[in-house]
Fold these 4 entries.
Entry 1:
Amino acid sequence: NTYILAETRDGLFVIDQHAAHERVLFERLMTAFDEGGQPGQRLLFPLTLSLPPAECQRVEELQGMLERAGFEVAGFGGDTVIVHAVPDPHPWFDPERCFREMVEELTQGSELVRSARTQHERIGKTFACKAAIKAGQHLSQEEMAELFDALFATELPWHDVHGRPTVVRLTTAELARKFGR
């Protein structure tokens, strides 16, 4: 429930499902930004969130970009915001947790945020990191195949938004050596 194994003609790929999904989500959002944004899914019951003052201010500053990322958010007075719509990247997505973690990281900064060249990239990287499926999340065979295909359809499939590898490749020769063949 953490790695996807895929046999190739010349060996084996071991894919980190979280890192792979990060790469896929990041590239999809960056493409969506170029095309005007990605839609959010309206919530039947909007999220009412109390945030520290600095985070409320950051949400206000980034409101337009957050909306283009799929988060429709509005101030509700004081230290409260209401989230009316959220992106829908996968069935186990926790929109409140993702939103809170994104806003905290965008406010306080991190190596991930500092490594981004633009505000769009900052939003894209933090969203991809926080919204991606997690290590330990069970995926069906079909979901694994879809993630595999989506990863190798990206421009940079070999690393996630942190620069960590998404795939470890073991050649047939390496496997044979390890088994003493």
Entry 2:
Amino acid sequence: ETGGRAKTARANQAISFAEALLTFGAVFGVLIAFDVRPVVAAACAVVAIPASPAVVMTVVKDLRAQGQVTERLLLLTAAGSAYASVALALLLGWVHVEVRQDFVAMLMHPVYLLGCSTVLATIIGYGAVHLLRLAGRKPAIQFPLVVALVLASVALASMLRLPVPLTLLLLGLFTRYFDRDRHFVSLRLGETGTLFVVVLFALVGAELKLGDMVVAVAIIAVRFVAKLAPMLIWARASALSPRKSILTAAAMSPLSGLAVLMLADLIALDPALGAE
């Protein structure tokens, strides 16, 4: 039984990395075919990697979903967000060369962003676990405490000029890692969280232009295929049937708004990149 779980875990790791890599390559290729500048195509391809954590968590909580598809969906969503965060930090080096021909900044800026974000998230995450232990497993107390920690993380990350989404993602990761005794309880946002997701969809819809729909449909199609292919290839090893693989890939279709926010640092370096 232990050997079977280890085999499934390895298959899941392979799927997460392969679908992220294939998604990047497929979207990058489509945009290059539409004569998009390579650095812009790379930025959009990185944004296309993760599924939307907000949509996935809302659907899972609303449906009280459990089982193989749900577990795989949450795993791949978290992994995709992590891959995109790291890739966007590395992409900053490319932008430094494109805009300023600065090869030192190309190497050192991504190292600073990744290293300092990791250190900051580790310190706050370790402290958060101790505060949660003192607060006890009471949602009424933990909710304002978690909000305060998130706001403090955002303020410190902004002050140090670190990518806020990456810092928050690492904060969640390290808090979960340090919380061995599970002091952190599951916080439910209820109707407020659902309203937030609805507003996100409305804002995105308001920005759509019919002239861009051909490119958009092409990206949606290749992105879905890129996410589905590794699941079908490793379906047997990961104990996931073809039908469940298709359902998982479909559930990962909503694009991550978090990943779009991660482009802020790139746009700050090259405003023209934001327009494109």
Entry 3:
Amino acid sequence: RPLRVLLVEDNPGDAELLRLLLEEAPEQAPPGAPTPEVHWVERLAAARELLAREAMDVVLLDLSLPDARGLDTVARVRAAAPALPIVVLTGLDDEATALHAMQAGAQDYLVKGTVTAPALRRALRHAVERQRLVDAAQRATNARDVVLGVVAHDLRNPISTIKMCAGALGESPPAPAESVEYLAGVIQRSAEWMERIIRDLLDVTAIEAGRLAIDREPLVPTAVLESARQQFAPIAGEKGIALVVEAPPSLPPIEADGERLLQVLGNLLGNA
């Protein structure tokens, strides 16, 4: 579809020239590219009204308008449409302001009187692409933060279990052999649980995608429940709580990721 350009320019002559450069120079565009669709307004207030009701791809913004000047112009457009790329238009004596405008969020700037059709089209295309990359990077950062938060939270449960079991093993008099074997098994399973969580943390692909890998396999539900009970029995015992699994042995097998289910049950039990 054609690129939808919002042109904010109070000088009709400049606006007409820019429109002609965009709409009447298709030979300067990449092969197959449709002619851009230009929407012209003369005031920032009109631009904000238009952005509130219509979707645009890029804003071509004059920094000197009757109702806004300089960096305030960029800030107010960003407030109206935070994810919309902005290319600022400036006079020869305003290049310093234009550079500050880019620091304030604009993607590029053009100097009036020197703009050619190829440069204009290129600036708009690059602004859209740069904004897309910025948005993708922000999404990846947000996804990473979510995954890191989950991993940090889930590590607390197996660490607490290992500490409880290690403390019980170090008590005097020594625990009976069957208790030692049981506690060692709980420590082993908790360590394997932590290893899986740490693998998630190191999986950059999963972090950037905002999801964790799921390995489905046939599982017996009661076995998963019993594993969760064993993991948290030491912690529950310290609080004087008895964990009991009540589930009919006739439950059919399920297709699921056992370690992920243990994470879910671990959060429920840990919070409880």
Entry 4:
Amino acid sequence: MLDPLTIGIICALCVVGLFVIGMAISVYQKCPPNQAMIVFGFNGSRVIKGGGSPVWPLIEQKAYLSMEIMTIDVKSSAPIITKTGVPITVEGVAQVKVMGDEESIKTAAEQFLGKSDKEVASIAHETLMGHLRGILGTMEVEQLIQNIDVFTTKVQEHSIPDLQKMGMTIVSFTIKEIRDDVGYLDQLGRKRTAEAKQSADIGVAEATKCTEQSKADAMRQTQVAQA
């Protein structure tokens, strides 16, 4: 049978062991795969993605940064003047996210830690809109309609360097709608319809002419054969 002193020592060791285990559990912090954990303190900062790391109380702190894709509705609050002076409203959808390398995550953390998703999306939106306005101002409406893919590619190419300075990038950018309040697009559509109808009428007339010519040639050949 154990004496009281031995029992006391065993109990004390059990308490210390439970305390150490509890401390280890509380110190070790996990990070889900859709976030990055930035740990900072007296020894600088480090980034943890989809794993875990000890975060020592009192000397270190942690913060989380979302790595998920943000979908942003890109639209201007007022019409944008094109190269030919036609005011156009363009609406698009962009998907942006923080880049996955450690340097970009630290850069994004400097810019966005403490900001809400709405604030981050607003910053990215203004970056995209600034380049969209600039590019649209160098294009005619006809160029825009005929080369939507070229336009969206230019917006991405011009926006990515600025977003990379904030640790972000564009996953995709598409145009949803182009409209105007002066009826220019309607007139352009009617003009194209009229041109298409005219081309069709010319094609029908030429086909009819060829058919009649073929009939006449066949009749002459028949008359020659009979003679």
